[in-house]
Write a structure and sequence with these properties.
- The complex is a heterodimer of chains A (about 400) and B (about 120).
- Chain A has about 400 residues and is α+β, with helices and mostly antiparallel strands.
- Chain A has helices spanning about 25-30, 50-60, 80-85, 135-145, 175-180, 185-190, 230-240, 250-260, 280, 295-305, 380, and strands at about 20, 35-40, 40-45, 60-65, 70-75, 100-105, 110-120, 125-130, 155, 165-170, 195-200, 205-210, 220-225, 245-250, 310-315, 330, 340-350, 350-360, 370, 400-405.
- In chain A, a hairpin with a 2-residue loop joins strand 2 and strand 3.
- Chain B has helices at about 30-35, 80-85, 90, 115-125, and strands at about 5-10, 15-20, 20-25, 35-40, 50, 55-60, 65-70, 75-80, 100-105.
- In chain B, the strands form 2 sheets. Chain B has a 6-stranded antiparallel beta sheet with strand order 1-2-3-9-8-5. A 3-stranded antiparallel beta sheet of chain B has the order 4-6-7, with no helix packed on it.
- The radius of gyration of chain B is 13 Å and the shape is globular.
- The chains are: A alpha+beta (about 400), B alpha+beta (about 120).
- The interface of A and B includes residues 47, 256, 320, 322 and 379 of A.
Chain lengths: ~400, ~120
């Protein structure tokens, strides 16, 4: 049983009916209501044309994503930097205004509460983007933190506070700069380096433009706009982008793109049933153990020295007639021994990509691995297919794949 | 799209009944919900099933969906085209995308919905 002193932050999310995002009416212009699915409290589009068309649009032209469900918090004031440096694992002192930083919020027991991006707008003004599904938990956690030096924390999506409100729309893919150029002549955008941001206007709409994203695209932007102006910006981008190959993209392509690129999703490649740490996920660089203090540091020091599992990216065949791989399918080494499990999987073209959680020193890049499909229904169980597999169990592989580099950019 | 001449299950299979043979597939609603279908595991020829017995699996990259038999019968024929072109189910679920045929001894459609009833059922979902 967990006790209070264990330092684990326990949170039950509120059980409320999902609501449309601020782009809800824009989505209904493109697809039927039935194509919207509840996700993290919002009704979000799964796909508009098809997952594979949207996926290749982002790789070859551009895709537009409704990310207005993502949590956007402001931490501001003279204490803001020091506070963020205490509650996040990366080093805020290395984050200059106009730059963004990938980081983690841990609880005192070292559990990952969320992976985040911190955007420094000014020396003393930060925007923190958190996962939609974790937003209520992060807010509750920040509320619960007791500190004399706690800076004001504001929900930037809440239009009842000030006029400086922001939601996230992502424009991703090689054509994204050409699409932006049709609406703004700001030459700074063209020169924006990865993880840099500027405050500008797009066709008279105030906007934070950040060279960040969650698709693995070398060129891509997140556009932070006032919620009331989000529909206008969305429709302008769609209209101007259409001749350049832009497609609106749903949650389906968002997932397949991030899996192909090797990017983690909270609950799958981070935290989740295996309680995966940033070290195992391949992000040791974002946990600065040399910092004097951050919440969860003691446990992270132990984890860094002892972890024996890691997230890996595997390429597998995915042409028609190949059964799709699924979460928890087994990963086997050359001798058929189970070395781990699939965390997420996606199809891209004629290939499937899996992010898997495997024993750290068993295989290396370019090594072949087997994949064992778990039983998909009762008939398969009756024929002897297993419903779960354990480490070191010997199994017959159903298909063979290859370990590939942990990340890839496109 | 719900053709008049077919019967339907709550799990979104359709069934066409012709002289002791039934043809089974999944409905337009089902194929839309699954998205791009990439794999079909057909039942074995000769397999005997009761109503609601398993008749294989239709899988998209996002989810796997069991196919249940709308009626009792014995599998006599499979749509072999689905092995190489499972997307036929997305393209033409009521014709080219049929999944299997069964021989039946009892033509009773008890427990199945006609087209009007199925359309009403879809409205409630």
């Amino acid at each position: 049983m967990e006790t209070k002193s264990s330092g684990k932050f326990l949170f039950e999310p509120p059980d409320t009916a999902p609501v449309g995002s601020v782009l809800y009416t824009e989505h209904l212009k493109l697809i039927d209501q039935s194509r919207l699915a509840p996700f993290a409290g919002f009704l979000m589009p799964l796909w508009y044309s098809s997952i594979s068309e949207e996926h290749s649009a982002v790789r070859n032209a551009a895709g537009l994503f409704d990310c207005t469900h993502m949590g956007v918090l402001e931490v501001a004031g003279p204490q803001a930097a020091e506070f963020l440096n205490t509650i996040t694992t990366n080093d805020i002192n290395k984050l200059n205004p106009g730059s963004a930083q990938y980081s983690y919020i841990l609880d005192p027991a070292g559990n990952v509460l969320d992976d985040i991006i911190v955007y420094a707008r000014q020396e003393d003004k930060f925007m923190v983007v958190v996962n939609a599904a974790n937003e209520p938990k992060i807010k509750a956690y920040l509320d619960a933190l007791q500190s004399e030096n706690k800076p004001p924390i504001r929900d930037m999506r809440d239009t009842n506070t000030t006029s400086d409100c922001k939601v996230d729309i992502a424009l991703q893919g090689p054509a994204s700069i050409d699409i932006l150029s049709t609406l703004t002549k700001d030459s700074e955008i063209e020169n924006l380096k990865p993880f840099k941001l500027i405050e500008t206007t797009i066709d008279n709409i105030d906007c934070i433009i950040s060279r960040t994203g969650y698709t693995g695209a070398k060129l891509g932007f997140e556009l932070f706009v006032h919620p009331q102006q989000a529909p206008l910006l969305w429709s302008k981008l769609l209209q101007n982008g259409k001749p350049l190959g832009l497609l609106p993209c749903g949650l389906g392509a968002r997932d397949s793109l991030r899996i192909e690129a090797g990017l983690p999703l909270y609950g799958h490649e981070l935290a989740g049933e295996f309680n995966i740490s940033p070290f195992e996920a391949g992000y040791s660089w974002a946990v600065k153990l040399e910092k004097p203090f951050f919440i969860g540091k003691a446990v992270m020091q132990q984890t860094a020295a002892t972890y024996d599992m890691k997230v890996t990216r595997i390429e597998l065949p995915g042409q028609k007639g190949i059964r799709p791989i699924r979460q928890n399918d087994g990963i086997l080494n050359n001798s058929g021994q189970c070395i781990g499990w699939v965390l997420s999987s996606a199809k891209a073209g004629e290939k499937q990509f899996a992010l898997a959680y495997i024993m750290k020193d068993t295989v290396k890049e370019n090594d072949p691995v087997g994949l064992y499909y778990l039983a998909r229904n009762q008939s398969q169980i009756d024929k002897g297919k297993k419903q779960s597999v354990q480490k070191q169990q010997t199994l017959q592989p159903d298909i063979t794949g290859t370990i590939i580099s942990r990340f890839e950019k496109f | 799209m719900v053709p008049e001449a077919l019967f339907y299950t709550k799990e979104h299979e359709w069934v066409k009944i012709e002289n002791n043979t039934i043809t089974i597939g999944i409905t337009d609603y089902a194929q839309q919900m699954l998205g791009e279908i990439t794999f079909v595991e057909p039942p074995e020829i000769g397999k005997e099933v009761q109503p609601h017995g398993e008749l294989g699996i239709v899988e998209s990259s996002k989810s796997a969906s069991d196919i249940y038999s709308p009626m009792a019968g014995k599998v006599t024929e499979l749509n072999s085209k689905l092995e190489a072109t499972p997307e036929l189910i997305n393209q033409d679920c009521y014709e080219a995308g049929w999944i299997c045929k069964l021989s039946i001894t009892d033509e009773s459609t008890e427990g199945l919905m006609n087209a009007t009833q199925y359309q009403d059922y879809l409205k409630e979902l």
